[in-house]
Amino acid sequence: MRVECFGREQSDMNNGTSVKIYNAENNCFEYGVVRKEGDRYHADKSDTSDYSTKIYLTPGWIDLHTHINDGFGMFGINADEIGYKTGVCMVADAGTTGDFTIAGFRKYVEPTIKTNIKLFLCISPIGIIFNHEYNAMEYLSAENTVRTIEANRDIICGVKVRIASGVIRHEGLEPLRIASKAARIADLPLMVHIGGNPPYLSEIEPFMKKGDILTHCFNGSGDAWMEDGTPSTAMKRLIERGIILDVGHGGGSFSFDVCRKAVMQGLPKICISTDLHALSRHNFVHDMATTLSKMLAVSMPLEDIIHGITKLPAGILRLDNWCDLSTIRNGTFFRIDEVPSVYSDCCGKSVSFNRRIVPLGVVINGAFFDL
Ligand SMILES: [Zn+2]
């Protein structure tokens, strides 16, 4: 048993283990007890007798931006290795799978996964198997994408398009136009990957609507933020229109300076995702807990961090009752250790910080796993 104070939980949960429970409606923590009754786990907020607990219980963590088409292309990795084994109960694939490859994913990859999954379907039918997935534009089709969505509504949660200077070459905004059209017809969110210019945010903005997601929001290039951390004119308009910002850390999309300044200036609630893939996992990102610890290091309140991996992404994925812990279907237990740590971003900056979020266990689809 790796963590001492949680090491007694399996027997103790029969009698009740004291926890700080995240209340997603009020964005706060409340004291209570988690109890196992029969084969079900329940959070009981009426028992607040123990204020000394250091264990947190939240709805199951959701990672909105990952790449889980394991064994396929440059990016795919094993969903469980970045999922329930690291405290994450739901991972959404951000475009590793497309119209031509989803059948293989469903036949050969999906049955191997225990973690809950959703897919943002790539607008390129081959999926993101390498950079420049739009080389053969004649294969991109809003109609075919919508047809595939309709056949896979149980798993597809949106449409993904990468539109940044490092991805597009001769294609311009055409992949974005087609992806936006497909998302609008299917009535699903569009996830847009931003990075270097061009294209500029002012060109991207007309294709996005309320509830869409702008991922890699703290990348160290592009035109999203002013030097002082206030949003650029186009970014301000996107925020005002209800576009949701997503961290999407990844191997090249997280700047401590950009993030810290933006947080200090004040932000709407944002999603916090890892963009874990084969190239980022062992460089910079490691796991969700490390990304969350970096958010603590830039002074984001813990409640807002948890909101960004539970309530907010659950709404995007249309997961009704995900945050109801009265009976725990998916929940994550963690602790915050006081330990000197050094965290690195993707822009050559390292930050020393003395706190680290440590996952202790998950309930995933009703079953408890000690981590
Ligand atoms: Zn990604």
Question: What's a concise summary of this model?
Answer:
By secondary structure, the protein is α/β, with parallel strands linked by helices. It contains eleven helices and 14 strands.
Name some characteristics of this structure.
single chain; 371 residues; alpha/beta; Urease, subunit C, domain 1; TIM Barrel; seven-stranded mixed beta sheet; seven-stranded parallel beta sheet; 14 strands; globular
Tell me what you see in this structure.
The termini are close together. It is built from eleven helices and 14 strands. The longest helix is centred in the middle third of the chain and has 13 residues, at 174-186. It has helices at 9-12, 102-109, 142-151, 174-186, 201-204, 233-240, 256-265, 281-285, 288-297, 302-307, 311-316; strands at residues 17-23, 28-37, 40-44, 56-59, 61-66, 88-98, 116-122, 156-162, 190-193, 213-215, 244-246, 330-344, 350-364, 367-370. The relative contact order is 0.16. The protein has 371 residues and is of the alpha/beta class. Bound molecules: zinc ion (ZN). Zinc ion binds next to loops.
